[in-house]
Amino acid sequence: QVQLVESGGGLVQPGGSLRLSCTASGFTFSSYALGWYRQAPGKERELVAAITRHGGITKYTDSVKGRFTISRDNAKNTVYLQMNSLKPEDTAVYYCNALRRWGAYSDYDVIGYWGQGTQVTVSS
Questions:
Q1: Of 7, 74, 96, 101, whose CB has the highest number of CB atoms within 10 Å?
Q2: Distance between CA atoms of residues 3 and 18, nearest Å
Q3: pLDDT tens digits for 22-64?
Q4: Rounded to whole angstroms, how far apart are CA atoms 115 and 101?
Q5: Mean pLDDT along residues 13-27
Q6: What percent of the chain is predicted at pLDDT more than 70?
Q7: Got the DSSP string for 86-102?
Q8: How far is the C-alpha of 111 from the C-alpha of 34, rounded, in Å?
Q9: Residue 86: alpha-carbon gap to chain centroid
Q10: How far from chain centre, in Å, is Cα 78?
Q11: 3-state DSSP call for residue 9?
Q12: Element (H, E) at 12
């Protein structure tokens, strides 16, 4: 059974940083590209960042480029999202998932069920 557990969220002031972690089980972690997604209240879930199986290629949505960094540790079955220079518009529930294939990032292109995610709130 595919399981993904996100952690590391919290309340942070604008300009602050957080590091999210997602630990996976139930599938061969190193065989899949991974993505971090977020969903803000009243909005659809969107891809924030993605990383290929061995970390050689990364992709970011335009609004986080230069501020967020995705990385992975295949030995620990964990993917990370380092978030710097946080803005109020980054407030959302953040989720991770494994991608069926690189280049397809919709809610239907992932292999796991969506968990509870981790809440990130950016506010002064």
A1: 96
A2: 23
A3: 999 999 999 999 999 999 999 999 999 999 999 999 999 999 9
A4: 20
A5: 97
A6: 100
A7: --GGG-EEEEEEEESST
A8: 10
A9: 15
A10: 11
A11: coil
A12: strand 10-12
Euclidean distance between CA atoms 67 and 82, whole angstroms? 8
Coil, helix or strand at residue 123: coil
List, for residues 70-88, the tens digit of each pLDDT value.
999 999 999 999 999 999 9
Whose tokens are 């980054």? That residue is 90
CA distance 94 to 112: 15
Decide if 45 contacts 37 (C-beta within 8 A).
yes
**Residue 122 burial by Cβ neighbours in a 10 Å radius (0-12, 13-18, 19+):** buried
* Count of residues making up the chain: 124
Greatest distance between any 2 Cα atoms in the chain: 41
Distance of alpha carbon 58 from alpha carbon 75, whole angstroms: 19
Pairing of strands 10-12, 118-122: parallel
Res. 115: pLDDT tops 90: no
Cα 57 from Cα 41, distance rounded (Å): 30
56 CB-near residues (< 8 Å, 6+ apart): none
